[in-house]
Amino acid sequence: MRIAFASGVLLISLAFGVWLHVAELRALSLAGQWLLSPDEDQKLPALPWGGHAADDLRRSLTDGWTALGPEHAERRLFELARFYPLDAAVWTELARVEASRMQARPQEFDARLNTALAAEPNSRRVLWRASQVAMQAGRLDLAGELLRDAVASSPGEVRLALAMAGRWLQDPEELVDRIVPTSPQHHDFAMRHALNQRDMALAEAVWQRAGSSATIEDRILLDFVDALMRTGAIDRAAAIWAEHDSDFAEFGVPNARFTRQMDAERGMGWRIRQPEGVRIRRDREVFHTAPASLQIAFSGQHNINLASPSVEIPVTAGGRYRLSGYWRGQGLTTRARPYLWLRSDQGGLRAEQAVPGGQFDWTPWAFEFVAPPEAGLVRLVLRRDETVAFDRNIGGQLWLDSLVLQALTVSSGNDGNSEGL
Predict the structure, then answer these.
(1) pLDDT tens by residue, 297-306
(2) Residue 187: CB partners within 8 Å, gap ≥ 6?
(3) The whole model's pTM is what?
(4) Domains in the chain, ordered, with CATH?
């Protein structure tokens, strides 16, 4: 008995669903005739539940009212608005119709757009649509305000807003001030957009508004410094880095005393690559100068080809420098031991200095060099080369610490090549 009752309920529900679907299709057919009819007295047919059918009808008007003519579309939209006054899309289309007139009425346009915004307050979908209508109407100030409101709760969309507003806001500072909300998240996405577009003027405008609160771990700082270095603005990158890295400001080498945790693979920080058999870490127990050193530990199980850690150091082309530091070795095996390698990507500088042995206490090392022409950076790399020797699997530990870059007086007796001391 219960099974039969449940089956009956199910059949009735299915029948009701089929009726509802057929009714909506019938209603849409009648509504389509009403939509195209030139008869002003023809009334909007009943739409079941006022739901999907009404939405589809409004979409038809939204997509095709220009073919119907503004006056005809306006009449039909007002008829829809009478039955569905809280459908914001109807009111934005009415505003679009008003904007299309040869003699548009600004007050009427504002009233319709404000009605759409009031129907669905703080709706990103409505704000985006309203901003597009305002742009089409030539109301660019209003479009900018709406774009800023649209991205207020969605920082990731600030990139699209900047791309749209950039069509009429040519000044980067004005573009940022008018479109980008002041939260760190919005500034972060704005910076990403600027750098993706390779627009350094826009990136600088974002930085001027965000930089005062950025830390050296923040992506916005790392990405901006990366871009400055990539575009050759080394002095600007160094100035920003020095504000956040006290070691660099004092000693000329980023994180020269390993005061901070090792930097991310961006900005003016150390690059770390750890192939199998190598561990590179900040060591707060063994150091030459507090608070820490950089330890490179070899497992003794691998014939390693290593070019890490490395760091880029800003210099002035043609300047004479002394780059120095301390290192310490414990139990370093094989004859193919690590060495320091100093080079410039522009060429003209290549020098190396091998560790003094397999076991040694804190020992100074140094390079004196003249930075090649056009060179804004030199790169210091710890390397170890693979070997075919019998004792090829390297073990032991090496520490680096207390790096410093000193500018020297240029003398005529140096030809620009580096020499290890």
Answers:
(1) 999 999 999 9
(2) 180, 206, 209, 210, 220
(3) 0.77
(4) 24-251 (1.25.40.10), 278-420 (2.60.120.260)
